[in-house]
Every structure is written in C-alpha cells, then in structure tokens.
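[job 0412] stage=fold_complex status=start
inputs:
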Amino acid sequence: QSALTQPASVSGSPGQSITISCTGTSSDVGGYNYVSWYQQHPGKAPKLMIYEVSNRPSGVSNRFSGSKSGNTASLTISGLQAEDEADYYCSSYTSSSTFSYVFGTGTKVTVL
Amino acid sequence: QLQLQESGPGLVKPSETLSLTCTVSGGSISSSSYYWGWIRQPPGKGLEWIGSIYYSGSTYYNPSLKSRVTISVDTSKNQFSLKLSSVTAADTAVYYCARHASAFDIWGQGTMVTVSS
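[job 0412] stage=fold_complex status=done
writing structure:
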C-alpha cells in the first residue's frame, strides 16, 4: 500500500488560515469516511486532531476542521497560532489489504 | 485516564528479532470497542502502521511487513507485544503503541530502537 500524498510544507502568518491536503485513492480516502489527522511536535508522540473526516476529539480546538472531496481529504487550521507549528499526518483505513491503515507523507506547518 | 507505555531493548543486532511490549494502564485491554496497534517512525521520516490486534487475538498486519511481524496480546497482564524478525538498519525507528477504533486516539510516548552491530 502506498502512503497518502501530502504537501511537504505549508506556512502562514499568525491569524491566517491554512489548508493541508491528503490525496489517496478510491481504496482508502475516497472509499471510507475513516480519515484522521494527527499533530506531532518534535520529539513527541502524535496527537489525534480529527477523526472520521471531520470530527474533533474532546479538547481539540475548534480552529481545526476537516473535510473530504473524492479521493482528497483536507485539514484546515484557522486563526493560526505559534503553537500550531508542527508536523501533521493524515491517515485512512484502506481496503488494499484486509483491515489495514495507511498514513500520509506528512506536512511541516511553519508559522511565519 | 488510559495510558500506554512501550518497553523493550533499545538496541538490536541485524538479523535478530526486535521485541517490544506495550503496557496498558487506567483501563482494560479487553474492551470490545478498540484495537491495539503498533506504528513506527524512522528518524526524520513519516509514520508507518505496522499492525494491530483485537483483545480476542485477531491480528492485522501491514502487507509490506507481514512476513516478519507477529503481534500478540496478554489480557491477564493488560499488555500486547510486537515481534519483528530479521531486522536490518531500515527497521531503526521510534516505535509507538496506540489504541484505535477508526482512529489512533491514545498513543504511548514511543521508544527508540536502533538496529546496529
């Protein structure tokens, strides 16, 4: 199974909105509403930010939102803050093999 | 609250078997709602799902690693384990254990494993 495709880097100024894309296929992103997004700060474990395309876990800021169109999912961060600078990964269930998950290539978000 | 903690050797020799254990505290590994998975991250690279197990013992593996991976569960100890055989330098990574349903919602802190002679 191939990794989902994300842009290597995205940047924005404080207060702006940015969007990270995650492109897969009809066997993963396009076929299931099991897309999730993770934030990872250096040296730390990933943190779940969005599950099932657009749902936020308790405690995650409503500045984070998710969506999907066809084979591409997106994570939008509005009102960008310095603490949002981190790596972000998408993930999806995939039917390329029985019960399997695939992660995205990762995106470095820089707050200018 | 539920916590996961990885443990095991930080250094493994090439061609040997990497063995890690994840201890679950603050909750039961026998919950019918969740799976328990292993994910790894080579230095400076992205995340890779290795495989998952249900408390009943049903296992699911990444096809690219399937021939070398075994995941097992010990409900009496509230632990699940990873074995990766015939390791090479390419298996050097931080290994995370995590709980998941449709998403990986609780993660361990990760443990660095280096493959080197």
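[job 0412] summary: The interface with chain A takes residues 37, 39, 46-49, 52, 60, 62-64, 96, 100, 102-105, 107-110 of chain B (CB under 8 Å).
[job 0412] exit 0
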